[in-house]
Every structure is written in C-alpha cells, then in structure tokens.
Amino acid sequence: MEDHTYAFEDSQLEVVEVVDDVIERIIARSTERGLSELEVYVVKTNIRVFTVANDKIIEASSSVDHDIGLRGSIGKRVGAIRLNNLPRNPDEALDSLIPVVKSSPEDPYWSGFASDAKAPLKVEAYDPRIGKMTEEEYVELLKATMERLKEPGLRRGVEKAFVAEGLLMASDLEVTISNTHGVCRSMKKSIVTIWLTLNILKNGSQSDYGLVYNKGILDQGELERKALESGERALLFFNSKPIESGEYEVVFEPTQTGLILQFSLAPAFSGLNILENRSPLRSKLGEVVFSDKVSIRDNPELRGGVGTRGFDDEGVATSNKRVVDKGVFKTILHSHYTAKRMNTDSTGNGIRTHPAAQPQPGFTNLELEPGSGNLEEFTRDLKKGIVVYDIIGYWMSDPFTGSVKATVTHGLLVENGVVVKPVKGVVIGGSIYDWLSRNLVSVGGDSVVNGNASTPSILISSVKVAGK
Amino acid sequence: MPIDLDSKINLLTIVITNWLSKLTHIDPDLVLKLRDQLGLDFIDARIQVYHSELVVLDNGVVRELTLNKHQGIGVRVLVGGSMGYSSTNSLDRESIRDATERALKIARAISGETFKLALYERPVVKSRASSSFQVDPGLIDISEKVELLKTMYSAVRELQGVSSSTIRFGYEDDYRLYISSRGDYVEVSRKMIGAGARLIAHVEGVYESFGDAESAVAGWEFIKSINWDDWIRDRGKLVVETARARRVKPGRYDIVLDNDMVGLMLHEAFGHASEGDIVLAGGSVLGGRVGERVASEYVSIVDDGLVEGGAYVPFDDEGTPKRKVYTVKNGVLQGYLHSLSTARALGQEPTGNARVMSYRHPILVRQTNTYMEPRDWSPDEMIRDMKNGLYIKGRGALGGEVNPLTGAFTFTSGPSYIIENGEPKTLVKGVMLSGLILDTLRNVDAVGKDLLVRTSVFGGCGKSNQMVRVGDGGPHVRVRGFTIGGG
Fold first, then answer.
1. Domain residue ranges in chain B
2. Alpha-carbon Rg for chain B in angstroms
3. Nearest-CB residue to A357 (from B66, B114, B408)
C-alpha cells in the first residue's frame, strides 16, 4: 500500500501544475478570441469523511476534486461556466464560455474584474496537519472524541450512552484566482468539521446533545473540552416538553447567537442588498441602529475561523474592521462590483457561492465583540426565561425584514435563576433589530468560534415564544 | 445546452473500455483477479454527467448566467465488511484506478472500528430510464431564457410597493450510470426545469419578502405552459398586501394545511425519522415502532419515485428499482425507507431509497416523493366545519427541519389566513410551525380528496451535507392544536 500512496502524491503534484499551465494559456488566448476580460477561479479539494452511526465508524471516503469557474466579459456583457475538468486545449473551454457571454444582456453597471494591487493580509488560515494526518490518525481522533463525549454520562451512571450519528470531515483546499488584469493569487485553506450526536438513556427516559466543531484549525485540546462540555449538556434534557406560550427572557448559548445573527442580520450589511433596496439598513449608514453594547466586526484574521483569509474571492485584500461600532452602522460590505457602483473601494468582502458565481458582499468572519458575563451568569440572572442550547429552522429567518424564527430543540426553563425543567418544541420569534436594541440586556464575554462566526452568549428580554 | 452526444460517448467509451471491462461481470476473470489482488467483497461505481443552467435577473440586471458541466466517477468498495468511498473528476484509467485504491485504503483504515457491513442480495438489474419531455431545453438558446426573465421583470417592476425582484430560470440534465460487480448496469437520465422569483415589498416603512417558483420534470414546453406575466404580477400583489398584514399571536391553533404545506410537514414530521440509516443508528423516535399506531387512522403516507408532479426517481443510486412504499397505512407504522445495507441490517426489503447528491458523495437513505393519500373531504368543507383557526398556505414557505432524535420538527409557511366562522378572512404574515413527531399526526382529523405533489429544480432536501431533489404534497389536511409562532 505504501507504493500506492507515494504514487498518488506524485500524480496530484502533476495535476496542480497542469491546471496552472492551462489557466495561463486560457487567459492568454481569451483576448485573441475576443473577450474583453477573463477570470479563472479554481478550487482543488482533498477531502476525507468518516461517518459514524450507532457508536461505530460505519464508512469513510477519500477524494480529490477540482471545481473551476470561468467568467468572461465582452464590453458590459458578462457570463460564466463552471466545470470540474479544465480541458488542456484553451479553445475548448472558451468555445463553451464565449456564447454564454454573448447571450447575456449588458449590465449597465459593469466596471470590470478587480485589479487590486494591495498585498493580501497576512493571516493564519491553514493548518497543514489537517491534510497530512493519516486515515488511521483520524480514526483515533474520532474514537477519542466519542469517548470524551460519552464520559460525563457514564460517570453519572446513565444506563446507556452512545453516539447515534455524526461525521468527521477534513478538507485541505487550494484556491487560485487569476484574471486578465494581472490578479494572480492562491491560498491554502483547511477546514475540519466534526458533528456527533450523543444519545443517552436513563430510567426509561432519553436525552441527547450534539457536539459541533467547525473550524479552520484543529485544536485537539479545545475539541476534547467541547466534547466533555457537550457530554455534560446531554444530561440536561431528559423529559423535555413544550412550555406555555408567552413572552420570556431568552439567553442564547454562544453558538446559537452566531446562527441567529448570520441568518437574520448579516446579509443586511451587503452593499448589493443595500443598492437593490432589500436591506433594512438602507440609508442608515452612520446612524444608531443597535444598543451601544453591540459592536460587530468583519474579522478575516480570526484564529480558527472558517472564513479567515488574506484576500477575498476576487483576489482583493481583506481588512479587519468594525461594521457596527457601539451600535452605530459604520461600514457597508463591498465587493468590487458594488464598490464601483457606490463610487468607493472594495472592502475585500467579495464572497462566492460557487467558483463561477459573481462574488457578492458578505462577511469573512462575523464577530460580535465580547462584553462581560457568561451563559451561567445570565442563567442565574433570569427571572422567568429560557436558556437556548440548540435550535432548528433558524435559517428560515428573513434578513430582508429582520424577522427571526427558530424552534428550540434543547432549552431550559429557568425561574428566579433556578432551572425548572427542560424545554423542546417551542417557536421563538421577533425582530433582530428589536433584539439588539431595546430588548438587549447583555452581551457576554464567553465568545466561541463556530464556522465563520465568533459570538458570545446574549440575553434578550421580551421574546415571543409559542408553545402549549 | 444539452449534454452533447460526443462528450457522452467519449465518457462512456473511456468508462466502458477502462473501467467496465476490467471490473464487472463483462470480464469475470478480471473481476476475480481484482478481488484476489485487492481482497474486495464488492465494488460499485456511480458515473455522472451533469449539466445545468442558471440565469438570475436582479432588478433587471443579469446577476448570474452560468452553465455548469460536471462529470466524474464515485467508487465504493466493501472489503471485509468495511465500506470505503472515493471519487475522481478525471476520467482516465489511472485516475479511476487511484480512486479505487483510495477507497480501498480508507476502508481498511476503519476496518477495526466498524460493524461488519453487508448488502442485501437482490437480483441483478440491467435497465435504463429517461424522464419524458417534448422540447429539449438544452436546444433553446440562452437568450430566450434571459428574455423570459426580462418579460417577467417588466410585468412586476411597475407594481407599486415592490422594491426589489430577483427572478431566476433553472434547468438541469442529470445523467447517471450505475455499475456494480454484481453485474448491475442502470442508466437514469432526468431533465428538470423551472422559473421563480423572490420579491421584496417596502410599504409604509415595512419590508416583506416572498419567494416562489414553478418546477417540473419536463422540457421547455413546461415554461411555455405558464403565463409568467400573470404569475409574477399575482405574487407581486400578494407581497405588497402581506407587508400590510398583521402577525399571528404566538400560541396553539387548529389549522387546515394546504397541499404544499402538507408535503412539507410530512417530509419533516415523519419522512426523515423513517429513513433506515437514521433508524439503524438509533437516532429516530420511530425506531422499534413498526406495527404501532403513530398517526390518526386517516393518515396513510407514501414514498413514491414516480408520482405525477414529483421528482423522477425510477431507480435509486444503488440501481435498485424504486418501489411505491407505504411507511404509514391508516395510522400504523409499516416500515422504513432503505438502502441495500440498511435493508440487510434491519431484515427488511430494499425500497429504492439509496441516494447521493453527486458522484462524489456516499450513499444515504433519502426520501423521494413523500405524500399523504387522499380521502374524502373537500377543502371548503374542511374549513367550514372547523369554524375558527388558521388556513396555512405553502406558497412562499422556505422549508423545514427536524431533529429526529428529540422528535421536534419545524417548518415555515407563506402568507396565510385567519379562519373566522368557517371562512378564510384575514391575511396574515407567514408563520413558523413546530411539533413533535409522535404527537402531531395523531391530531389529524380530516384529510381532503385533492392530491397534489410538487418538486423543485431550485432546491431539495439536505442531509449530512448532501442535497437531493425531492417532491412532496398531499391533499388539504386538518390538524388540531398546532404550535405557531415566529417573526
């Protein structure tokens, strides 16, 4: 097997060189074929996935893939093709792209691809161990994490503790952006995602909680601590039920804060949504929009953030900046396209949904700057409230209106600082603009990085809850 | 753009000469040799050629006009009861061999930690199937698709109160070939098409948004069958009206769900928990309940890959014919949805529900088209009989989600109506509904006769980072005491 491994590594080096060579030739040929501009975006992913069911690793996969976007323009006409194989003959790719560009109606606002000369921000976005760890090492890591997750329950004498479902996904990525304006940047990225649902049984009752670890680096000490914490939390939710409808104080655990902000609020800062009249923050630049306890940062330097990067998806240098400064809306997030439409410079926030998509303004990493206090302290402060540990359906919140919607699957009803009973199956709702201004009681100091967000616990008053 | 015949033939030639002839029954000596050399119990491959088109018009300006061409091979090996996957987008013989070796290597890496997996031994399948269409959308010039969206934009831009419109056209052509060392050879080709819009209203300082789309497993004729100007104008008027509408007070209500909502509810409230891989993992509240009453006697739930209006799934991604399956009949749980491995492990028949998002992905048990069987109520009669409550509409809904272990599920609606004295009277903004799997379907007390199933080329069902096309629906259904809030 060793021979095969070495043979594989050699062949992948060759593939990268071939892709780079083809990109150069396509860009060189594009002008001769009549394109005004061309941009090539290539993502090479080396991914390994281990799937867990019923306390066992039931299957695993290991793959290398390419995902390639070619965008071209002729005057103000812009079109794109997305491929996973770049033909060695540049004309083959251009034969597909050029008719698409020609069919596209003119975009009156088109100002070309980016030509950023600024040096990228220096960031730690790559953990080389994620790509280098062997399959056997990942199996050991997964087994150790599952044991840690079960440990608190077993220590407290539950009848059974097992990981019902989950996966470990380790991605090692190489991203290359080139265009006819001389932008030519590449970066390495790493992402590790671990999601494990612990199921525990005691006296005929069941409870569960999920460990979620989604970061750009692998910190095994932190992973172990999170596994133990999740194992402890699983003990909290035996016999959970809906509670009476009404208005409650609500404490969101740090990760839940991040989910709420990303889906109900983050798109409102996009220059495109502001230009196209679908952001509640339109015309609010420089105004107080939230409580002075709220400062939100676009932080491309966040340690461990999945969105940590030195340049955006157009090759433009990123920058660490406050978007909301003590409640005041300070910065509109821009791609090159929206910046030109608003006669300003890109903020380095052009983010793509796929390699051939037009970059749209979005956060690299969203950071709600920490205040003081934490989940436990906020819980003790509650007169009558719910502590929310997990939610579903939050992604159906509406950033165009600021309307928050989520269903609590794991919560605790607290009265006068004391936990009364576990809660599930209740809907929470309201306006994120109210929650972060007149209803905001506290922003905690216990920030957690999850995906491309860093957020602490928050305590909100007068949240509408639908239950029994 | 169609999958061009040359590239298809090229691909298949490469695959067939460099892969099929080496690994399947076509050359049994080579299969035996491979098994001897690599120690394989079983090997299969999913080959996919996927073309799609997406056009997005954002307030009249083309935001996206993209052709997508992906192809590749996913390889799965079963060795000593361990299952390993790999994939490659390079279709040369060396890459395929590399992928096979990676799959084997990773299967061996987990061999000490896994159950000894086995697959249900079903008869060999050799078949091909193709969804029907009249006019190949790939042959229609892209400019005609852009023109469709521009016309829609013209129709909605003049509506007072509509502040933003994002209009889209989508088309996909998905060709899949499944081959296995058992000797299976199954080709499935499916075309889907659709158009839709997300509209934002800004009225008296209040924003409201509404998204909707029409899709079908069909060709360009589907687009021609709809008056899109009227379609988008109606939705524009609705979003403006909804901006002025009030919110429902959070609480519990008796409700009537329309066809779209019923499908969404069943998919979330029941479908996921009936998926064999979740049941096998010990992650479903429906585990161990076959033969038990889990819903009211009026409820029968079907998973069917070929129902009119739904997604087209004649075979699953293990080449198993998709059977019409009752998971619930007259309120009683009949069984689960299965792949070959979950059927074997749970001692049931495979149901044809092993699906992958693309050649890159591993098999999961997925729903196809989930719907409730109709009964005898008319929707009007149901609403009249209820007197007071809510009429929950699906147009504009964003989807749903479930935690199958706790049994909590949730989904959103589009703009809906308060029912007073047996009539839908007052428009209200969309809501979020929440329930518990083992409670909600017991509270169904009336099922309509108006079955309708729909699918979408713009979305589907997500599970473990894989999205697949699904359909869902049913007749109008009445449920007593549903938790409603949000917004």
1. 5-244, 251-485
2. 24
3. B66
Q: How many CB atoms lie within 10 A of CB A254?
A: 22
DSSP code of residue B160: T
Residue A24 counted as domain residue: no
Rounded to whole angstroms, how far apart are CA atoms A287 and A285? 5
Q: Which residues from chain A sit within 8 angstroms of residue B65, using beta carbons?
A: 78-80, 100, 103-104
- pLDDT at position B26 is 41
Q: Do A57 and B412 touch (CB under 8 A)?
A: no
Residue B267 DSSP one-character state: I
Residue of B nearest to A139 (CA): B110
- Residue A142 is part of which domain span? 32-215
- Contact present, A198 and A239 (Cβ < 8 Å): no
The ipTM, to two decimals, is 0.87
Query: Would A231 be classed as within a structural domain?
Result: no
The tally of CA atoms less than 13 A away on the side-chain side of residue A207 is 22
Interface with A, mutate which of B114, B163, B467 (most A CBs under 10 A)? B114
Extract the tokens encoding B220.
Answer: 């360009």
Q: How many CA atoms lie within 13 A of B361 on its CB side?
A: 16
Categorize the per-residue pLDDT at A68 as very low, low, confident or very high, splitting at 50, 70 and 90: very high
Chosen from A11, A63, A146 to mutate, greatest number of chain B CBs within 10 A:
A63
Decide if pLDDT at A351 tops 90: yes
Q: How far is B73 from chain A (nearest CA, A)?
A: 11
- Report angle CA B123, B124, B130 to the nearest 5 degrees: 115
Residue with tokens 């073309």: B51
Least confident of A159-168, A432-441, B430-439: B430-439
3-state secondary structure of A191: strand
Q: Which of A215, A230, A257 is the last residue of a domain?
A: A215
Express each pLDDT in A157-197 by its tens digit.
999 999 999 999 999 999 999 999 989 899 999 999 999 99
The answer to whether residues A43 and A177 belong to one domain is yes
CA distance A24 to chain B (A): 20
Is residue A309 one of the residues assigned to a domain? yes
Question: Would you tell me which residues 314-343 of chain B have a C-beta closer than 8 angstroms to some C-beta of chain A?
Answer: none
pLDDT per residue over B235-286, tens digit each? 999 999 999 999 999 999 999 999 999 998 898 888 999 999 999 988 888 9
- Closest of B265, B247, B250 to residue B400, by C-alpha: B265
- Whether B141 contacts chain A with CB within 8 A: yes
Other Cβ atoms within 10 Å of A14 Cβ, number: 10
Question: Is residue A5 in some structural domain?
Answer: no
Question: Which residues in chain A touch residue B464, judged by CB atoms under 8 angstroms apart?
Answer: 51, 167
Mean pLDDT of chain B: 89
Please check the confidence at residue B143 and state whether its pLDDT lies above 50: yes
Q: What is the pLDDT of residue B437?
A: 84
pLDDT-based confidence at residue B382 (cuts at 50, 70, 90): very high
Verify whether the Cβ–Cβ distance B432 to A139 is below 8 Å. Answer: no
Residue B133 pLDDT exceeds 70? yes
CA-nearest residue to B165 within chain A is A276
Closest residue on chain B to A45 (Cα): B88
As assigned by CATH, the class of the B5-244 domain is: alpha beta
Find the range with the poorest average confidence among A344-348, A451-455, B400-404.
B400-404
The residues in B 78-107 lying below 8 A from A, measured between CB atoms, are 82-91, 94-95, 98-99, 101-103, 105-107
Inter-chain residue contact B84 with A62, CB threshold 8 Å? yes
Using the structure block, give the residue that is written with the tokens 């709809």.
B226
Q: Which residue has the higher pLDDT, A4 or A399?
A: A399
Cβ within 8 Å, pair A53-B143: no
Alpha-carbon span A437 to A329, nearest angstrom: 13
CB A444 within 8 A of CB A373: yes
Choose, out of A111, A195, A405, A468, the residue to mutate when testing the contact with B (most B CBs < 10 Å): A405
